[in-house]
Write a sequence for this structure.
């Protein structure tokens, strides 16, 4: 019995896949978005999308709006949001994909029809009154196109294409052959014939694209791609998938035919990427997963073996923290990985690959890796710890009694970010030498236990301490670069007092991840209120509304499992009873109201 | 990611929709005029993202025979931190931000154009990129030649001509700084409030002569201690709101 059930489940899965439109998406598509129309529709309904004024206006202008908008522009959200009205199935996935062929490059949006009458009406709306629309019938589908867009449809599905015929298409001949030129009586005839030929070429390219989508070779669709199957195993509101090999087309212009770049392609051969995007109740998340080839896997694992030095945390002021961005890697492994990729890529360069390779070999011999990697520890963090007034100098002119001009320097206060860049360093001897060199070159001025940075391009170099100042210090094996003088004087040795340090939640964030990012909405907004107001009341109102909705954003990564490496981006909404989507729609509503005011 | 936001929030779609309808409504003449100004007064355009923190200085020395030296200086030093940040972006609030190279190229074009004008010599353009101060300096055989040269430089395109007029005249020991009040209503189409842009932006005019000034008809112009120069100071906002005029006729000894 259990075998029978398993068979049934397998059968239903295969049947489901066969019904899914993924078997109409070419496997060599550059990238594919899987849009879970059902989930999005449900969330829009939960948030009462229909009650928002901007949506009502949106619908009222549908007719005007649909004509002339492109797939890669705003057509897709319009169709997804109004799926019911346009006969788009809300129980099936829709697909958006990009495909580059030699004869045509296109972006297509493909959806299943739930109501044929409504879908036909949508097509009519889009085709009606458009200039230069050509209509045609293919095998099992109808189509229409003009210079900007192609629409293909049958009773089961509709596809919109934005397209471009590559300028080089048809301009080369692989084999030299004798071409018999037709004779034309005059230039106009010749021009007309050429134009006709171009039109025919375009029509053939368009039909090729439509055929590939409506009548695909079952072995050449994305539904058979194992990487893709893995990406869509877990359901999400939107899934983005990009196959590494498919994307290598872009390199053709640089490297020529693929035969010459085997070495380079081998490192990307098993690389693919997917991202699951979800609008949850209280946040919006994008979970990125990158699958690397076995060649890369070990290098990535070694690179990822980095941690943030605890001493770094001692210098991050958490009281008014705006945000931070940082990474912790094993520098030696990272260097080796980068050099390996670089070497493979560069050596594939036609013409001078060998020369580049030799140069890199010499560079590697000369580089004292022990010294360098003893100096750079691999963890670095940039934090904006406040936004506050700083002294800034500027040039202005004074005039004497006879109005002769005298250039003078004045100082004013300006609201600027207070920042700190922190990196773990070792090799005291080497760091001492570097600092000494910078002091000799007058790029740094030695102070008591720290250094003042001098801008080499500044005309005020002679008056070294004018304007906004930047400081450098090395303490507790940490390189500190900041514009906060208090940090390099009072707190250089001891670190900041405990009550000023970042929260436990932030410390855990740094402890558990080696790629981090964080941004705090409240702190940014409260510090920049005056500045935002100066940008205009409308701008301020939108920012104010945004702040009322967003709590913080964060980047967490990288975790690994086999050949898969993942990171995630989270936009956390303010706590409350409202759903994240409601927050977003309210933000859209306020933007709309400000626009129509 | 962009698509993600598009599909879910429909935010971008609505913004695009609105901006699209605005584009349709946009007066092409105004748009083109703004485009021209973007190139010729590109720094002023950049200053529009700020709160009008810039000074413009016109300093002209006129000799008895009508020849002289003209200096036009745009000083954005007060806003240099913001401009430094803006220069890192592609566009801000609807205005494309030109690169340093593009600005240099346009200024060089202007220099070359002015150098080829009859009666104009020693054209110099100074670019101070650390303070964002830019100066155009040239000698002229007669103020009439200066008028023609400036007209040609600023009115390369037909649509910009309305903003250019004969600003200077000199004969029989009388110098006039002419002014045709501008209609700035077109600029209300800009995404930025024009008043905000001009708030705090200063205009300084200095006219110097070989002979002492006997009289002038605009009391906003101050006379120097040696009586050989006059100076006018006002905010661009006052000029826009027509609270002041640059028009002045000066009689020399």
């Amino acid at each position: 019995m259990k075998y029978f059930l398993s068979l049934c489940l397998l059968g239903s899965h295969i049947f489901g896949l066969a019904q899914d439109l993924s078997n109409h998406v070419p496997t060599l598509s550059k990238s594919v978005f899987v849009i879970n129309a059902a989930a999005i529709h449900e969330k829009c309904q939960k948030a009462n999308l229909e009650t928002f004024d901007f949506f009502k206006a949106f619908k009222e202008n549908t007719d005007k709006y649909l004509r002339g908008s492109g797939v890669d522009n705003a057509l897709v959200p319009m169709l997804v949001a109004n799926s019911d009205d346009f006969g788009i199935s809300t129980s099936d996935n829709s697909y958006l994909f990009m495909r580059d062929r030699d004869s045509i490059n296109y972006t297509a949006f493909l959806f299943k029809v739930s109501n044929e009458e409504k879908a036909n009406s949508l097509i009519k709306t889009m085709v009606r009154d458009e200039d230069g629309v050509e209509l045609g019938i293919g095998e099992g589908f109808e189509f229409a196109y003009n210079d900007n867009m192609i629409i293909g449809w049958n009773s089961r599905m509709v596809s919109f294409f934005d397209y471009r015929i590559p300028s080089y298409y048809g301009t080369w001949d692989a084999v030299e052959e004798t071409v018999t030129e037709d004779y034309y009586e005059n230039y106009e005839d010749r021009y007309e014939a050429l134009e006709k030929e171009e039109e025919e070429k375009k029509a053939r390219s368009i039909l090729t694209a439509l055929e590939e989508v409506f009548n695909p070779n079952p072995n050449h669709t994305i539904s058979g791609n194992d990487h893709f199957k893995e990406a869509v195993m877990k359901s999400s509101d939107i899934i983005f998938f990009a196959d590494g090999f498919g994307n290598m087309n872009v390199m053709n212009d640089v490297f020529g035919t693929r035969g010459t770049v085997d070495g380079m392609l081998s490192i990307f051969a098993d690389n693919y990427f997917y991202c699951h995007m979800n609008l949850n109740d209280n946040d919006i998340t994008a979970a990125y997963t990158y699958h690397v080839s076995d060649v890369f896997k070990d290098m990535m694992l070694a690179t990822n073996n980095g941690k943030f030095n605890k001493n770094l945390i001692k210098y991050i002021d958490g009281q008014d923290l705006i945000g931070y961005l940082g990474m912790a890697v094993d520098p030696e492994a990272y260097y080796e990985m980068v050099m390996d990729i670089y070497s493979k890529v560069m050596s594939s360069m036609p013409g001078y690959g060998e020369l580049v390779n030799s140069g890199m070999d010499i560079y590697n011999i000369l580089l004292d890796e022990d010294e360098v990697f003893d100096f750079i520890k691999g963890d670095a963090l940039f934090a904006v710890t406040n936004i506050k007034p700083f002294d800034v100098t500027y040039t202005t002119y004074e005039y004497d009694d006879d109005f002769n001009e005298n250039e003078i320097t004045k100082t004013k206060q300006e609201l600027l970010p207070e920042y700190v860049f922190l990196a773990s360093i070792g090799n005291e001897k080497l760091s001492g030498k570097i600092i000494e060199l910078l002091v000799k070159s007058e790029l740094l001025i030695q102070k008591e236990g720290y250094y003042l940075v001098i801008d080499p391009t500044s005309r005020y170099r002679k008056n070294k301490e004018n304007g906004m100042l930047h400081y450098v210090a090395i303490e507790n094996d940490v390189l500190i670069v900041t514009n906060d003088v208090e940090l390099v004087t009072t707190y250089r040795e001891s670190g900041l007092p405990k009550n000023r340090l970042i929260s436990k939640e932030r410390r855990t964030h740094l402890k558990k991840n080696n790629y981090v990012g964080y941004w705090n909405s409240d702190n940014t907004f409260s510090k920049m209120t005056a500045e935002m107001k100066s940008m205009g009341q409308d701008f301020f109102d939108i920012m104010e509304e945004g702040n009322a909705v967003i709590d913080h954003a964060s980047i967490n990564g990288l975790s690994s499992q086999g050949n898969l490496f993942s990171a995630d981006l989270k936009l956390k909404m303010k706590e409350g009873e409202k759903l994240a989507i409601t927050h977003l729609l309210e933000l859209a509503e306020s933007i709309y109201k400000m626009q129509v005011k | 990611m962009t698509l993600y936001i598009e599909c879910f929030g429909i935010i971008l779609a609505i913004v695009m929709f609105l901006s699209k309808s605005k584009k349709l409504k946009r007066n092409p003449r105004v748009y083109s005029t703004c485009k021209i100004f973007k190139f010729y007064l590109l720094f002023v355009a950049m200053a529009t993202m700020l709160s009008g923190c810039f000074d413009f200085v016109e300093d002209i020395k006129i000799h008895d025979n009508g020849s002289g030296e003209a200096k036009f200086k745009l000083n954005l030093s007060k806003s240099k931190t913001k401009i430094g940040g803006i220069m890192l972006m592609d566009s801000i609030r609807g205005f494309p931000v030109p690169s340093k190279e593009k600005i240099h190229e346009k200024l060089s074009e202007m220099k070359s154009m002015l150098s080829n004008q009859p009666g104009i010599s020693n054209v110099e353009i100074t670019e101070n990129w650390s303070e964002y101060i830019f100066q155009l300096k040239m000698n002229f055989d007669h103020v009439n030649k200066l008028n023609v040269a400036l007209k040609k430089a600023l009115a390369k395109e037909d649509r910009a001509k309305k903003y250019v007029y004969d600003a200077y005249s000199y004969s029989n020991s009388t110098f006039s700084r002419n002014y045709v009040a501008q209609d700035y209503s077109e600029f209300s189409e800009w995404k930025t409030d024009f008043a905000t842009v001009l708030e705090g932006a200063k205009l300084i005019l200095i006219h110097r002569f070989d002979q002492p000034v006997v009289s002038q008809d605009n009391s906003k112009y101050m006379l120097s201690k040696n009586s050989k120069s006059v100076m006018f100071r006002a905010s661009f906002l006052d000029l826009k709101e027509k609270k002041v005029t640059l028009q002045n006729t000066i009689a020399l000894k």
Summary: The first helix of chain B runs from residue 2 to 9.
